[in-house]
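Posted in: Protein Modeling Q&A

I'm a second-year student putting together a small comparison for a lab meeting, and my supervisor asked me to include a predicted structure for Large ribosomal subunit protein uL3m. I've never done this before, so apologies if this is the wrong subforum. The sequence is pasted below exactly as I got it from our records. If anyone can share the structure token output, I'd also love a short note on what stands out.
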Amino acid sequence: MSAVTCCRQHSRNVARSTMRPIHSFFLTSTSPSISISIPIPAASRTPTCRLFSTTPSRFITAHKVKKPLLLPGAAGVPDTVQLPLLESSPVAALLRRRDPFRTGVIARKKGMTAFFDAKGVRTPCTVLQIDRCQVMFNKTRQEHGYWAVQVGAGERNPKNVTKPMLGHFSACKTSPKQIVKEFRIRDARGLMQPGSQLKANWFRKGQLVDVRANCKGKGFAGGMKRHGFSGQPASHGNSLMHRAMGSAGQSQGGGSRVLPGKRMAGRMGGQRVTISMIQVMDVNNQLNTIVVKGPVPGPIDGVVTIQDARRSHPPNISTSYRKTMLTIPKRTTKPEKPVVTAAA
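Accepted answer (user: helix_wrangler)
Welcome! Here is the predicted structure, written out as tokens:
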């Protein structure tokens, strides 16, 4: 039976007509003087009806979903694996993150300045200085579940460091650091040797970076300062409610409760802020400073982390840092040893 017929009523008739040959019928005029015979095929005798599909539409065009494949050499996948990848697997989650290939550095915010180009256009910039930044530890997906590089910066008195942390710094071949942070990387190609020093030339002039820092803390603030409320009227019978928030919700229509997410007075600032796709304006390896375009969150002398932008192409690694990158040996299959059996 064909998949498309005129309607449900004639689907059975069409099925029967396809099983036997088509016969022709003739119409003859009733007039005695004129005799005309016109052949009419059997298929034309079926009344014209609206087309109807006897097959459900969801079975006509099947929706094909492309299964992603494992990327060789990425997220701990060997080069020989080419199997379908589950979207809910940890490997797929790591591939969706799109972390940068390289680690980042820890710097401190020193202040703002301005650059003038040849046309006299003023561009505000922020100066960031790197203070004794070194690679401490590598985290792999096989041991820790993800790829990351632990970086330390600054200096700390060993008397003020606990013995477990002193042992960790000693194993990392670095002096006690004041600040220790982790930078997630995409795969094993971004791992570095512990003890390697990162300077300002880790970045290049003109590349795009992501800057993260904690913004300035304002303490407990009211609704007008925290959310920009306009406040209550200044006169006309208003007393002691000029900067008050006002109503926090309905009495009965909203469930006699304060809905989650209601903007109210509370602690303002002091949270992590990320500014992505910032251009590097200048790099000074002697002063160990990086100048980025625009403002950077946080107070003066605040801790700032700088890493390659996620949404941009990774830059070329400088030749001075190629020796510090770890090279992972490829897996090779060892030949099986022949089994020697003693003769009886």
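A couple of things worth pointing out for your meeting: Residues 100-218+268-324 form a domain with the Elongation Factor Tu (Ef-tu); domain 3 fold (CATH 2.40.30.10). Confidence is low (pLDDT under 50) at residues 1-5, 21-35, 50-62.
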